[in-house]
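Table S2 (continued). Query chain:
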Amino acid sequence: MYDEENLLPLSALQHFAYCPRQCALIHIEQVWSENVFTAQGRIMHEKADTARYESRADIRIEYGVPMRSLRLGLIGKADVVEFHRMEGGQWQPFPVEYKRGKPKMDDCDRVQLCAQAICLEEMLNIEIMEGSLFYGQTRRREDVFFDAGLRRETEDIARKVHELIDSGITPNAEFSKKCEQCSLLELCMPKACSKGTVKKYLLKAAEE
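Corresponding output:
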């Protein structure tokens, strides 16, 4: 269990799952740079936060829902939490996270959504088995089932994020295809700062 002073932003899990170096640059070095992708994403999140409550038949919709988990040491806010009326009159939480682009090949978005579900479970003492990711580029939802595998991955990443932040050390750069979509590309300089490139540069400098 973590205390209030050691809670980390829930969004850090998505950053870490996408790229540990990106997570460190944002949450250790406090570096941020906005590009067209993050600007569009920010606008989408702001629109989701504009309203606070809606009611549609058997669905209540809450926007900008604050949440935390002392077990995982996380604090944050959900874009949307739908409450679906179940048989017997109970309301079942269903978290929905808005993303600008399209579904990713890795689990970084699913991990973030699963962490939201775990926070809600801890706060409301209820089991949440499903949520959804809404992607602006495809204008479609992707349903996510919070199975044991995804929960283990989410808890493992939460632990690794705490270890990373506590260490205060930013991982070395490793260039990959996804670097091209990162808003920190110019600040991170993954091609110039990758371990192999730096080693070649130092060897060349030593020879000269």
